[in-house]
Design goal:
Helix 15 crosses helix 16. The protein contains 16 helices and 9 strands.
């Protein structure tokens, strides 16, 4: 026993369990190998798929067009059935090599013809090693290199467009208005983009009294919702030393807005924006930690990080907590769906049940379908489908208080 020594064990990163059951890769490429799990689409990933699909369908080259794959992509994804393999996603969205190959083929047929923009109606990608503003690759800010980043958000694209319009910058306007910066994969230094848009940030158009009142109401609604979240954080996270996820706090924030100020409800409110407001309000009283997957954890600075992580995983694995999150999400979808709809007759008639299926939230229908289907396959009979719609109408009627 005296000769035994302690053994150092290398900790392996925990991988998220596969949730590919029942999903099919809708951009499947049979020429690849080592596909891995079928992952669900994110909002940004699905938008990029749609943009690349439009670009490919404009091409006359079958190798670029990939008609057999583009025809399989629906207008909207089904969270239970549709997904993607990572190699298939990378192959489908990588247009740069195919565009270079097409350009080389054009130069071989017409070597004296200078290749510029969009001569065949296709969208050419912008250089990936050149900033859209300074036209350079390397730039240093305060002795630190500012790397090139790709334009991937609508907010960045619109800020560049507005700045170019107010500055009457014909060069940038020609690039922005010709095609979407996101689809053309524009690159820039973040410091260059800030400098380019900073000078027009204070330039505002004359606003009417109606716009001022609307802005004041929106600020008041978000202020009240934020005070509600601050009280919740102070009571549960700081005083009671519990651990929450930022997505859960965002869900409470949106639920409060939807119930108290339905006109100011914004389902696209960003989680990062709420995080920045919490950091500014609480300072070092709350801490944030980003796990390998899912959203950030929020916990008190008096709670050790290890205990916070353990509590988060216990909470995530709790069936009661999962049911609470599902109920809150379905409630928000129902209220949002019936916000502008006409009054529903009660009790609902069979004609109304058959004709008003589009008004029912798709998330609620998917939930009830999975609940009633055998072994959760999602396939139900016509009788069960009518039962699902009837139950959905009952639930919506009670959640919306008769709307």
């Amino acid at each position: 026993m005296a000769s035994e020594k302690p053994v150092n064990l290398k900790k392996h990163k925990k991988r998220r369990p596969s949730d590919s059951y029942g999903r099919v890769c809708i951009i499947h490429n049979s020429n690849l190998s080592n596909y891995g799990d079928v992952k669900p689409f994110t909002e940004i990933g699905w938008k990029k798929i749609c943009d690349i699909k439009c670009i490919r369908l404009q091409s006359d080259n079958p190798k670029i067009k990939l008609s057999n794959i583009c025809e399989q992509i629906p207008e909207a994804p089904n969270d239970f059935c549709h997904g993607y393999h990572r190699p298939c996603y990378q192959t489908f969205t990588s247009l740069r090599q195919t565009e270079k190959r097409k350009a080389n083929e054009q130069e071989e047929h017409s070597p004296r013809k200078k290749r510029t923009l969009n001569s065949q109606g296709t969208t050419l990608l912008l250089p990936s090693d050149q900033c859209l503003f300074c036209k350079k690759k390397n730039k240093y800010v305060k002795r630190k290199q500012d790397y090139l980043v790709k334009c991937v958000t609508e907010t960045a694209k619109m800020s560049i467009l507005n700045a170019a319009q107010q500055k009457s910058d014909s060069r940038v306007l020609g690039i922005v208005e010709t095609a979407c910066l996101i689809a053309r994969e524009a690159h820039y230094h973040e410091s260059c983009r800030r400098d380019y848009t900073r000078n027009v940030a204070h330039t505002s158009l004359p606003t009417s009294t109606c716009n001022i009142e609307t802005q004041s109401k929106m600020e008041e609604a978000h202020s009240q919702a934020f005070h509600y979240i601050c009280d919740y954080v102070q009571k549960h996270i700081i005083d009671s030393a519990t651990v929450e996820r930022m997505t859960m706090l965002r869900e409470k924030y949106l639920t409060y807005l939807q119930s108290k100020y339905p006109q100011e409800y914004n389902p696209n409110y960003k989680t990062d924006k709420l995080k920045q407001k919490l950091q500014k309000h609480f300072g070092e009283k709350v801490q944030f930690w980003q796990p390998n997957y899912r959203s950030e954890l929020v916990y008190s600075n008096e709670v050790p990080k290890g205990c916070a992580i353990e509590a988060a995983f216990e909470s995530a694995s709790s069936e009661e907590r999962k049911l609470q999150e599902a109920a809150a999400t379905l409630r928000r979808f129902i209220l949002d769906s019936f916000k502008d709809h006409s009054h529903m007759p009660w009790p609902p008639t069979s004609e109304y049940l058959l004709s008003s299926g589009d008004q029912l939230p798709s998330a609620l229908l998917k939930f009830l379908t999975a609940l009633l289907s055998k072994q959760g396959t999602g396939h139900i009979s016509s009788r069960s489908e009518r039962l699902v719609r009837s139950m959905a109408q009952d639930i919506c009627y009670n959640v919306t208080c008769g709307q």
